[in-house]
């Protein structure tokens, strides 16, 4: 990875308050950009600004409760360019596990390795918390699948018609997992 990318984009964890404060602006806009671009991230198009901001305020509550962590990527001039979240498993028999959710990179920042850097930041955060297994799901055939495979994730299987894309069309979803080693 080039040093230019490391200096051009900075990644940092967000506190619950920072997520709350950025919910109505940068985070909501980033989520809307993903949905508008056809990403299957849990929402149907058109995604309204109020709905996107409300979802992020819910993420802020989860962060306050210690359920979810958030990392953000900022580009030139401080613009929010990407985000990723880590959700801790809630069941007593799964304290070692977490889910990667909402890896979003703004369409203007794609193709520069930012998704890989965000994923690595979340994996490092999970290791620091003592998690040893991560899981995620993604739309089968999406560009994200290549990113996950390249980052060492293992395909677990595919479920047909699992989720609707933003236009409402059912698509298969593929699950991936990654075992983390303590470093």
Keyphrases for this structure?
183 residues, alpha+beta, Aminopeptidase, seven-stranded mixed sheet, 5 helices, 7 strands, 32% strand, globular
Structure characterization notes:
The protein has 183 residues and is an alpha+beta fold. The chain has one domain: Gcn5-related N-acetyltransferase (GNAT) (Aminopeptidase, 3-Layer(aba) Sandwich). The protein has a 7-stranded mixed β-sheet, sandwiched between helices. It has 5 helices and 7 strands.
Largest sheet: 7 strands, mixed
Assign a percent range to the helix content: 25-40%
Overall CATH architecture: 3-Layer(aba) Sandwich
The named CATH superfamily: Gcn5-related N-acetyltransferase (GNAT)
Look at the structure and give the CATH class.
Alpha Beta
Count up the helices. Answer: 5
Total number of domains:
1
**How do the strands of the widest beta sheet line up side by side?**
1-2-3-4-5-7-6
Rg, alpha carbons: 16 Å
Tell me how many strands there are. 7
Span of the ends, CA to CA: 21 Å
CATH topology: Aminopeptidase
Mean pLDDT: 95
Order of helices and strands: HEHHEEEHEHEE
Sum up the overall morphology in one term. Answer: globular
> Which spans have pLDDT < 50 for at least 5 consecutive residues?
none
Give the DSSP E fraction (strand runs of 2 or more residues).
25-35%
Query: What structural category do the secondary elements indicate?
Result: alpha+beta
């Amino acid at each position: 990875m080039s040093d230019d990318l490391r200096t051009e984009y900075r990644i940092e964890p967000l506190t619950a308050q920072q997520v709350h404060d950025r919910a109505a602006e940068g985070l909501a806009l980033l989520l809307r950009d993903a949905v508008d671009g056809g990403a299957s991230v849990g929402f149907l198009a058109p995604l309204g600004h109020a709905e996107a901001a409300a979802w992020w305020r819910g993420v802020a509550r989860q962060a306050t409760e210690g359920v979810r962590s958030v990392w953000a990527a900022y580009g030139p001039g401080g613009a929010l360019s990407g985000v990723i979240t880590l959700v801790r498993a809630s069941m007593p028999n799964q304290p070692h596990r977490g889910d990667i959710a909402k890896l979003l990179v703004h369409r203007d920042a794609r193709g520069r390795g930012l998704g890989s850097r965000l994923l690595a930041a979340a994996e490092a955060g999970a290791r620091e918390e003592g998690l040893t297994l991560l899981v995620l799901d993604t739309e089968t055939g999406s560009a994200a699948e290549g990113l996950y495979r390249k980052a060492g994730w293992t395909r677990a299987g595919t479920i047909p018609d699992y989720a609707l894309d933003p236009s409402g069309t059912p698509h298969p979803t593929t699950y991936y997992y990654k075992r983390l080693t303590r470093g």
